[in-house]
């Protein structure tokens, strides 16, 4: 059970319906602690994106409450919430408005109490950190899908919000871009940032996210340790997800008679187990 003293975000009996009558969320009760990294997963239409849009006040509960640091979002302005929370949407073009990459970063920094010189210095620092030096004068519209998503992330990260929310962060990203994103997550996690990801990427969540919330049809189906929930065939099927590859391999090996220890969970565990197994086989043959 989560510690109420550390609870940063609290959904209390939240229900939400769109103006056309579509019910998107039902009886949502969820606590997220300061400094946690969690993934919210489920099929399309499960209510994941509706849930995160409440965090910055874009949507408000039809009933129930959403508390952030004990404050009800219904009494908070979008402006005040945006200082605490940075949301990077699935389609980065929905939040990129400037003519150039450099101007996009400067626009985001204008919300901070910085001098003109400080904005210039911080812009250069962000461009270097996110490897946008050679694209500074380029239009965001001319960037690749992966680069435009990275720019959207940079434009939010430069404001240094305490809560980071990513909607499908690995979608459309190549291996190098995913590694860059993962390195950034690790760095922010060390700073006690609260990180929330909506994702269909089972492999990424299983390897790198300690807690998962599974949703279906507007409700929370399960909430707990990722390595327990994403290896539960019933829960995974009901969430319209698939089992992680390393777990499927583990099941397959057991089916053909291999004794695979229970503590073989992540890819690194399996690689080490197989390496040791074949080294032993090789030595016995010799």
Task: Note the topology.
Elements: E1 7-17, E2 23-33, E3 37-42, H1 48-53, E4 63-68, E5 71-72, H2 78-84, E6 85-88, H3 101-109, H4 116-129, H5 145-157, E7 163-167, H6 175-190, E8 194-198, H7 202-208, E9 211-216, E10 219-225, H8 226-229, H9 233-238, H10 245-255, H11 267-285
Textual characterization of the structure:
With 286 residues, this protein is of the alpha/beta class. It contains eleven helices and ten strands. The protein has helices at 48-53, 78-84, 101-109, 116-129, 145-157, 175-190, 202-208, 226-229, 233-238, 245-255, 267-285; strands spanning 7-17, 23-33, 37-42, 63-68, 71-72, 85-88, 163-167, 194-198, 211-216, 219-225. The strands form two sheets. The chain has a six-stranded mixed sheet. A four-stranded antiparallel sheet has the order 2-1-4-5, with no helix packed on it. Helix 3 (101-109) crosses helix 4 and helix 3 packs parallel to helix 5. The protein is globular and about 70 Å long. The termini are far apart.
């Amino acid at each position: 059970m989560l510690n109420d003293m550390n609870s940063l975000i609290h959904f209390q009996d939240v229900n939400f319906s769109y103006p056309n009558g579509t019910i998107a969320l039902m009886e949502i009760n969820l606590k997220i602690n300061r400094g946690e990294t969690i993934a919210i997963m489920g099929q399309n239409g499960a209510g994941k994106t509706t849930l995160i849009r409440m965090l910055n006040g874009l949507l408000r509960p039809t009933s129930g409450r959403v508390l952030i640091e004990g404050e009800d979002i219904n009494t908070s302005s979008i402006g005040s919430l945006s200082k605490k929370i940075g949301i990077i949407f699935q389609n980065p073009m929905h939040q990129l408005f400037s003519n150039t990459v450099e101007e996009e970063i400067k626009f985001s920094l204008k919300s901070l109490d910085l001098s003109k010189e400080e904005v210039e210095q911080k812009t250069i620092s962000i461009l270097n950190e996110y490897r946008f030096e050679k694209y500074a004068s380029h239009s965001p519209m001319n960037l690749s899908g992966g680069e435009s998503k990275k720019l959207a992330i940079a434009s939010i990260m430069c404001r240094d919000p305490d809560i980071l929310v990513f909607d499908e962060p690995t979608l459309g990203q190549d291996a190098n871009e995913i590694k860059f994103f993962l390195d950034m997550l690790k760095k922010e996690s060390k700073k006690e940032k609260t990180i929330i990801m909506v994702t269909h990427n089972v492999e990424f969540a299983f390897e790198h996210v300690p807690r998962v919330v599974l949703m279906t049809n507007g409700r929370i189906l399960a909430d707990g340790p990722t390595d327990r929930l994403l290896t539960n065939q019933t829960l995974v099927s009901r969430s319209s997800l698939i089992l992680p590859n390393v777990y499927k391999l583990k099941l397959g090996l057991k089916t053909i008679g291999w004794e695979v220890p229970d503590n073989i969970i992540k890819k690194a565990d399996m690689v080490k187990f197989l390496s040791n197994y074949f080294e032993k086989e090789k030595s016995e043959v010799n």
